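Could someone model zinc ion with this protein?
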Amino acid sequence: MTDAPAVPMLLDVPVAPQVRAAFTTRFGGVSPAPWESLNLGLNVGDDPVRVRQNRSRVAKELGRPVVYMEQVHGDHVAVIGDDWRGEVIVGVDALVTARTDVALAVLVADCVPILVADPVQGLIAAIHAGRRGVELDIVTTAVAKLRQLGACELTAVIGPSICGRCYEVPESLRAEVTAGCPQAYATTSRGTAALDLPAAVRAQLARAEVRVAVQQQWCTLEDERFFSHRSRLQSGTQTTGRCAGLIGLR
Ligand SMILES: [Zn+2]
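Reply:
Sure, complex below.
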């Protein structure tokens, strides 16, 4: 906790001059293993006091409060208006706002974090898409909400997530998901059935006429800078922390 971390707390991604988009790494927080150290997820076994400390470090780094969700692998979208006072938004997997004084967060440990902005109209969204979110096409639902609020030209960033070579699933599950979203079809490096969630998200964004500015190729399972649920499963424990995708209007 005392030494300056070799890996920064935030990895910034260029979207537009009016927008700040970034992804947190595992570094720069106060939590011990297996949440070491910048765990931003409550409800993953970590001490909530430490999680709040980690969250306030991120808020300080961004210079503004951050809106978090208690995600449920559903497709509900919440609009953050002027009445938001710091509470966690329960039961949703996407946040939308026009506010310029807050940042929106999506928590992940292998799922796909998606950040969307219309810098001209001043609208942003943070979206959580795991396997269920891809099946439910939460991307399209969240983009529809942005357009309903006046968004026109939308740009997206697809953040670090588990890649198609690593996300092994039973063949029956691959068949089920790819029936609705063929772009999710993948094979692991060992030749077994897999899902490529970032590819599926990219196709859904294209269908919703959202330009993808950046698609991170970092795989959360392979890249030690990020928390990975699957990586923990392989090492025999389910417990790990959560990273965040963050977006704010300047
Ligand atoms: Zn991978």
